[in-house]
Amino acid sequence: MSALPDTMLAAYLPGGSRTESRTVPVPAPGHGQVLLKVRASTICGSDLRAIYREHLGSGPEAYQGVVGGHEPCGEVVAVGPGCTATVVGDRRVVYHISGCGLCDECCRGYPVGCLSPRRAAYGWQRDGGHAEYLLAEEKDLLPLPDSLTYLDGACVACGFGTAYEALRRADVSGGDTVLITGLGPVGLAAGLLARALGVPLVVGTDVSAERRAQARALGAVHHAVEAGELAVLLGDGACVSVDCSGNGAGQLTAVRHTRRWGRAVMVGEGGTLTLDVSPDLIHRQVTLIGSWVTSVHLMRELLQNLDRWGLHPECVVTDRFPLTEVDTAYKTADSGRGGKVAIVTDEAGA
Ligand SMILES: [Zn+2]
Ligand SMILES: [Zn+2]
């Protein structure tokens, strides 16, 4: 093993739409921990909404001034004592919330909902992926199949995992039609995964013509239209709707274009949904599902399925920057024009 450097570059998100790069010590893995060389670290809508522009939230749930980035993927370069399933050279995706491992939510496999004050999300409460190296708990790591790139893995760490969970929670199968409202990176992921699951009709909607065109070009949807055109394509509605817009209008579109006995899943964070409960839900027997990030086991299942399907999540990435250009990366992501923005090293595609 080549000797590790003493210091590394790391990027912080001080708020006010700024980034701050610092040189900091390379951490040493303690008991049960590993050190990853970060190969790819993608930027998420929630990084922009709740950290980069302004620090939302308060108390332990708020951003704690740590290294940013909650979608890291990398290669193990050092292993601490007590690790049992990881060796140097392993390629790993980080499940981006470190839970206590003991509470009801952790036992269900959902550390995202960990009820303990020890819960810490990478890039929020503990150092994340916008650095050359990342200290992670061994239990938070998932194997990256050889056929997938590090950038594929970073895309799974939050966005694709979240989209897959939504589809699985709604029991999506080849017998369903699917509507996706909001064609940002998570909406694109939901479309690509629905198609991979055999859904014969995936329709997407977004207010942005550029995003509709991108969804079509990627093959994430069969049709991408404005909300006013949905009834023509979907008739009585889709069997399953997935809202990835995170705004009230998109959420309402999703519910109202869910057909009788259908399922509507809310994934996009934020927004206020106002429903006319009797006609919108009760009389049409619609099931409304809230789905937050994903579980460890479904993320593992997704990684295995991506390998089988030959599907590469990195296809949603439109812009790649080195860590030294983290500020441009965030400005690009915040412009909302393109798709997913990634911070990568040269070996990201390896
Ligand atoms: Zn995310
Ligand atoms: Zn827990």
Automatic annotation (TrEMBL):
Return the protein name: 2-deoxy-scyllo-inosamine dehydrogenase
Q: Which SMART domains match?
A: PKS_ER
Which residues, if any, are the signal sequence?
none
Query: Organism source for this protein?
Result: Streptomyces shenzhenensis
Q: Which family does it belong to?
A: Belongs to the zinc-containing alcohol dehydrogenase family. DOIA dehydrogenase subfamily.
Please state what class of enzyme this protein is: oxidoreductase
Q: Which UniProt keywords apply?
A: Metal-binding, Oxidoreductase, Zinc
Q: Which cofactor does it need?
A: Zn(2+)
A Pfam family it matches: ADH_zinc_N
What is the purpose of this protein?
Answer: Catalyzes the oxidation of 2-deoxy-scyllo-inosamine (DOIA) with NAD(+) or NADP(+), forming 3-amino-2,3-dideoxy-scyllo-inosose (amino-DOI).
According to the entry, every stretch annotated as the Enoyl reductase (ER) domain falls at 16-343
Query: EC number(s) per UniProt?
Result: 1.1.1.329
Kindly state which reaction or reactions the protein catalyses.
2-deoxy-scyllo-inosamine + NADP(+) = 3-amino-2,3-dideoxy-scyllo-inosose + NADPH + H(+); 2-deoxy-scyllo-inosamine + NAD(+) = 3-amino-2,3-dideoxy-scyllo-inosose + NADH + H(+)
Q: In which pathway does it act?
A: Metabolic intermediate biosynthesis; 2-deoxystreptamine biosynthesis; 2-deoxystreptamine from D-glucose 6-phosphate: step 3/4
Annotated Gene Ontology MF terms?
oxidoreductase activity; zinc ion binding
